[in-house]
Structures are given as structure tokens and as C-alpha cells.
Design goal:
By secondary structure, the chain is mainly α. It has one domain: Four Helix Bundle (Hemerythrin (Met), subunit A), CATH 1.20.120.450. Helices cover about 55% and strands about 5% of the residues. The chain is built from 5 helices and 2 strands. Strands 1-2 form a two-stranded antiparallel sheet. Helix 1 runs antiparallel to helix 3. The longest helix has 27 residues.
Length: about 170
């Protein structure tokens, strides 16, 4: 499944399939909100004073995927994709935009992080733990957190897209 294939999660499945199904559903929801828009439209802020954009959401979710499925889950030491330290006035957590990053680049970054997330999860059980904040976190918890993160931002994306061209739903 690519990020643009939006299938309803299975109604009767084991826990892992259900969690992965909902995560993929919301990934595809965000991708769908960006389809058919120009780079300029994807850079359109929601409503003042918020600078939130669809492009910023895609960049942010690439960072979130990287954080949870690479840094936390497998302990990989990877730097941010959109590094605020390189330009203190530049991107922060992916939300902020820079002139040098267009949607196609951000989409590829995001899809690469999703592919790496799937690979990192494929050999782990839901109860397997990783070190986190002086304790441990299970893959189940990470999946649940990511579903919530995507669902929240899918709502933001829905409102931004409606403001841009009136499109609602997916």
C-alpha cells in the first residue's frame, strides 16, 4: 500500500493488523488531502495567526515517523530531516517551511520514513519494548500514539484543504 491508497481498516482482524490498518488509513488521509494541489497551495497557511500548512504537516509527519520508528523503536541515531539547528530561523519539527524544500521532496522524505518504519516494525512484536524517557515503551503504545498523531493532523489537513479549494472528505 502506498500513502495514497486509502483502504478502510479491516473490521475483523488481529490487533496488529488493526493497528497497522488504522495507521495506514490516516497516512493515506494526509496524502489525499495534498493531492491535486500546487506547491503554492500546499504552502498556504490555514488561518492567521497560525502558520500551519499542508506542506508543513507532511514535513512534520516525516519527522514524527523518524522519531518514533527509528530513534525510539530501534535506537538509531539520526538527525532531523528539517534541521532547525542549521538555520535558527528555519524549520522547527518540520512544521516551518523553507524556500528550498518543495512538496515533492517532502513527500519523498515522508514516504521513505514510512517505508523505514514498516521495515523496523516488521520483525518486532507488539509487546517488545524500547527505551524511552528513562523507562520503556512498547510497539503497541507507539502504534497507538501514531494513530492519534495522524488523526489529529488529518483533522487539521481537512480544514486547511477546505480553506484552499473547498474540498471536503477524501
Amino acid at each position: 500500500m502506498t500513502t495514497t491508497d486509502r483502504a478502510m481498516p479491516p473490521l475483523e482482524a488481529d490487533e496488529r493488523t488493526t493497528l497497522e490498518g488504522w495507521l495506514d488509513f490516516y497516512r493515506a488521509t494526509l496524502a489525499g488531502k495534498c493531492e491535486g494541489l500546487t506547491d503554492e497551495q500546499l504552502r498556504t497557511a490555514s488561518v492567521q495567526p497560525s502558520p500551519l500548512t499542508l506542506l508543513g504537516l507532511v514535513q512534520h509527519m516525516a519527522e514524527v515517523e523518524r522519531n518514533w520508528f527509528r530513534r525510539v523503536l530501534v535506537g538509531e541515531q539520526v538527525s532531523p530531516i528539517y534541521d532547525p539547528a542549521a538555520d535558527p530561523s528555519g524549520p522547527d519539527g518540520g512544521f516551518d517551511l523553507s524556500d528550498g524544500v518543495g512538496f515533492e521532496t517532502a513527500r519523498v522524505d515522508w514516504e521513505n520514513e514510512i517505508a523505514q518504519a514498516r521495515a523496523n516494525c516488521s520483525t518486532r512484536g507488539l509487546d517488545e519494548t524500547s527505551s524511552f524517557m528513562g523507562g520503556h515503551v512498547t510497539l503497541r503504545w507507539i502504534y497507538s500514539h501514531m494513530i492519534g498523531e495522524y488523526a489529529r493532523h488529518a483533522g487539521h489537513a481537512d480544514l486547511i484543504r477546505e480553506r484552499i479549494d473547498g474540498a471536503t472528505g477524501v
